[in-house]
């Protein structure tokens, strides 16, 4: 019980620390901005909460869909595992704590495959972020013509491709691992995985991405940012792509997204305070709020029986 309580207290302390000591946005400025804009009616708040619920509904549904290839799991159990793991991993680098947190919901003989399953789930979401991000980034360059040194960019791209090619060749000749799993084992796991579940997992990742990116656009409209949906998506998808590339402690993810978002939205002269407030609201609705509910599942967690 002491360990469970420590996890919850630790998660809440990090949330408090992030809100109270945000170097990019003071909490008092954030509250003043919301008060002056008077944009939040009960109807608006309920709609934003609904979008957050839908965001996590499809994430939980994706986890249920994928994990049933290992062990039959109800939506209720998938809900408990997803939100409990969110709370437990909130302050771990790159959400690495999520792997162990989800695994301990299962008997010891299932845990390695559960961790691989979680890696696969994250890879599917990341692939959607990468695909839509590159499309959005292409539109962003065409539409806003950022000051990019294309010679240096091309040279960097060529070097990166060569490095990844050599790395890929090296990985096939060595015992390379991702999240502690040998590359060959991950490859075998994915190849042997039911293809219908991979397709469903990818589609659910797309739906989830569409929901939280629309939520960002809705907040832009709420604060009267004059931008079309397509132009907004070009910037938003670029933001998520760049933010996903930068490693971070998950609790500071909001700072990274905020800095990138401020730079990208500066091309359409959006106030810095507006963008930082929107990024903070996205973080509060999609991570802080679910982690509060997740703390209940952490406190009520019981280890599964080994003969399961």
UniProtKB/TrEMBL annotation:
Cited InterPro entries: L-PG_synthase/AglD
Where does it reside? Cell membrane
Supply the name of the protein: Lysylphosphatidylglycerol synthase domain-containing protein
* Pfam families tied to this protein: LPG_synthase_TM
Transmembrane annotation, as ranges: 40-58, 119-141, 153-171, 198-220, 232-252, 273-299
UniProt keyword terms in alphabetical order: Cell membrane, Membrane, Transmembrane, Transmembrane helix
Which species is this record about? Algibacter agarivorans
User: What topology does the record note for this protein and the membrane?
Assistant: Multi-pass membrane protein
